[in-house]
Structures are given as C-alpha cells and as structure tokens.
Amino acid sequence: MRKLAIFLMLSAMFAVSACSRDKSDKNASTAEWNDNFVYVKGGTFTNAKSNYYGQRVALNSFYISKYEVTQKEWTEVMGNNPSKFKGDDRPIETVSWYDAVEYCNKRSVQEGLKPVYNIDKNTKDPTNKSEYDNLKWTVTFNEEADGYRLPTEAEWQYAAGGGQMSKSYTYSGSNDPDEVAWYWKNAGDKLLSGDWNWPLVENNHNQSRPIGAKKPNELGLYDMSGNVREWCWNGYGETESDSTSTRVVKGGGWMGEVSDLTYVSNFEANGIGPDQGLRLVRDE
Q1: Per-residue model confidence as pLDDT tens digits over 137-167
Q2: N or C, fewer C-beta in 10 Å, the chain?
Q3: Per-residue pLDDT reduced to its tens digit, 72-108
Q4: Domain ranges of the chain
C-alpha cells in the first residue's frame, strides 16, 4: 500500500512538472511570436514607388516577420543548413521555392498550427512550363489554415513600402540604400564604387550579413532591401491565365544592385542561390 502511495505521488509530481513545462514552452513560443512579427494593417497602397500604387489594390491585415528567416530558425525545423555563408543569425540562403513552402508547413506543424500549403510531389503542375524545373510539384493554398506562408508579391511590396505609414521611400525605409541594405557595394571587406562586375564583388569577399544590422523601415521591418532576395508565393506576372513557371523574388541581395520597390525579379521554383532566402507571413 505504501509503495502504491509513493507511486501515485511521483506520478502526480511528474504530471504537474510536464504541464508546467508545456505551459512554459507555450509562453516562450508566444513571446517569440510577439517579438519577431509585425502587424501590418490592411488597406490600399500608399507608397508612390510601388508597382501597385494607384491601382486601388486592397489587402487584408496580416503579420509579417520582422527579419528574414535565420539559419538557426531553419535548422531547428528542417534539420539541415544549406547556406554558403554560415551563421545562426544570418539569413538562410541557397533554398528553393519548394524548400520554402515545405519549411512553412513544417514550422506550422511544429508550432501546432494548420499548414497553409497542400504539397503534391507526385503530380506535375500543368501550368509550370519551365524546361529548367525538374520538380514541378503541385502546390495549392489552403485559405482556412492559420499557419505560416510566403507573402504574395502585393503583400511584400505593401509591407516593404511601409504600409499605411509609408513615406514613399525609394528603398524599404530610406532613399539612401546604404542606410537600409546590404548589396554589392557595401557587403564585403570595403566599400566599392563604380560599375558592378563579379570579379570585383568576389574579390571583395561579399556575403550575406547578420539580420537586423541596418535601419528598419516605417513598420520596423529589417533587410527588405538587400541582404538576400526573398521568395514570394506568386508566379511571375501571374494572372488567372498565366503559368507558374517561375516565382517572384523581391528585395535584392548582397551580390547585386540594391532593388528599388518597383523592381520585380523571378526565378525557377527549384532554383537556389547564396542570395536567395525568405520571410514569413501569417494571416490576422
């Protein structure tokens, strides 16, 4: 009888301890969420440098990560780090669009959220006509989900331009790229000048930099101009009849010219590069 009482007492202590740890973990997760994401109030475009300015594009409110996804965050979810320039507080890079949507889903599951993307690796996307994409996964969007996702091009531009607090800067947070962006002229051993050329950039040991070292934009978002280019959900030039052969990338990176807010680039969904990363969004 005494042994049974001791066993029951130990079991109760373990249960209390487990509940306490679970509560602590949830509190830590909530604190991290509040600290690392910014609320973007919805509305129409106010940034005069945006491609969407004057088109009356209306967006719902959403949350967007204050920083680009770091290598530490990526490794904790995916169990690997493909980046060329290693560092826990540097942005993850050398990841494809397919890698990015998988990360969004896996992180959502890890944090008890419903994944946004339905990923079918066995069915080729019929709208993807790229001769360079050997994967062509069919990826669809679950609008009822509350998990992490990539921003749409419009959401990215709206947030980068400062949302309703926009001052219509040329770059995200300033008219001076050196205040807000790591790009080919300032991301290496010394400040470069003149015209861009790869040998100059390579010999200057240019590389990605730790997140949040430059000035934020009006919403408190860092590195939306420069450091690494960021995947968006959209296909390039996408309308209902367009293909999704390539995906939009925004923001520019450490090896190239700093991108103003009107510049749109694209890349095959399976493409990777040491200046290619991502930023997360969640719905309100």
Answers
A1: 999 999 999 999 999 999 999 999 999 999 9
A2: N
A3: 999 999 999 999 999 999 999 999 999 999 999 999 9
A4: 41-283
Q: Among candidates 115, 63, 112, which has minimal Cα distance to 279?
A: 63
pTM score, whole prediction: 0.88
pLDDT digits (tens, 9 = 90+) for 235-269: 987 554 456 789 999 999 999 999 899 999 999 99
Mean pLDDT of 194-223: 97
